[in-house]
Amino acid sequence: MQLHDHLKSTGESVDDFANRIGEAISTIRKIAYRQRQPSLPLAVKIERATDGVVTSADMLLDATAEVAA
After folding, report:
1. How far is CA 21 from CA 24, 43, 63, 66, 69, in A?
2. Can you tell me whether residue 63 is helix, strand or coil?
């Protein structure tokens, strides 16, 4: 599941989630809207904070789509 979809389903805002896990709001916003891929430690942190609903693999950006664009 994508982070944005998870937050929407739980009713938690991006800002609240970022504050809860101790990360910059702008960073989490970019990850939620798939404008940035998180570092591995941050991806693991997000996966743990969502109880595994959002996996590290869910946050990987498709490299072939970026090259084609």
Report:
1. 9, 12, 27, 28, 32
2. helix
Q: What is the pLDDT of residue 65?
A: 53
Q: Please list, in sequence order, all residues whose beta carbon lies within 8 angstroms of the beta carbon of residue 40, skipping any fewer than 6 positions away.
A: 56
Q: What angle do CA 7, 12, 17 make, to 5 degrees?
A: 85
- 40 by Cβ neighbours in 10 Å (0-12 / 13-18 / 19+) ranks as exposed
Claim: this prediction has a pTM higher than 0.85: yes
* Under 8 Å between Cβ of 25 and 18: yes
Tokens of 33: 């809207």
Average pLDDT score over residue span 34-59: 97
